[in-house]
Protein: gibberellin 2beta-dioxygenase
Amino acid sequence: MSLVYITQDIHLSVLQPLTMDSSDPPFQETYKALFKKVASKGPTTPVVVEERDLPVINLGRLSLSKEERRECKAEIARASREWGFFQVLNHGISREILEKMREEQIKVFREPFEKKSREDKYLDFSAGSYRWGTPSATCLQQLSWSEAFHVPLSDIISGTRGCNSTLSSTMEQFAGTVSNLAQKLAKILAEELGHKSTFFMENCLPSTCYLRMNRYPPCPISPDMLGLMPHTDSDFLTILHQDEVGGLQLVKDGEWIAVKPNPDALIINIGDLFQAWSNDVYKSVQHRVMTNSKRERYSTAYFFCPSYDTVVESCNWPPVYRSFSFREFRRQVQEDVQKLGHKIGLPRFLV
Structure:
């Protein structure tokens, strides 16, 4: 066990000029009004966050004996109930694909900010794919010190978008292999609830899912700033490949814990839609990313999503949540973020 220390308050150090690389988004310049609101609060009290290993599941056991398969599936369901997060080994995604994805990701993020922000011309992705900071932030506690390309897979699988052919082909290869893993895990989780459902095969298609490339620049005022604000994911499953830097934290038993990086594993977490579909059996838990003062952090996330018209309803009775479409869920989340500065999510859809 190791311990991670973070601070609770933002103090006067944020008011000092920050030296940023030309590839970094202009955080301090753009959000200077938020920085000016901060007054000195004196020394801060460190908060101790325990670093722990997530449950680790060897998917190679799914090809062994009937008993091994049964136990492996039970472990996946148990981790989804008790943690909402777990790690998988022998997941079927080659190291070559993962390393190539990371290489291409680093290349695109190292381009000048002005070039990245014109993603429609530079990469030919859908407008708004490149994101950074938190446009809706009303205080520094709501500002995420990170940048990302959040790309609909429909932008790249058709072959009609993406003028950076190497990046697009690598993303397509990565997404194709991870998509198979997502379908396998969703099927197992459904079966463990007693449902041999074709719902995921019919509704969660490669063209309806998303790939998000994340970069967390070094933050001179770390750990006073978060790389990504606390949130839950608005999908069925998220499959994450992260580097060795660390920074991912999640809520377990009412307390924040830090996830110890495992270079051989992929991280899986349950999203809001699976919690609703499972009738609160599987848990979509809050997580966040901490900043690092000296090192940048990279991760790639695959979001297992249905089409906008897909209706999500609880698989057991009585339902905890009313039926809703994915479009309705996303629209409600966006409205809440714009009005309140944060996501409400599933509590909006309780019966």
User: Anything to note?
Assistant: The longest strand covers residues 297-304. The CA atoms of residues 157 and 172 lie 6 Å apart. Residues 2-306 form a domain with the Jelly Rolls fold (CATH 2.60.120.330).
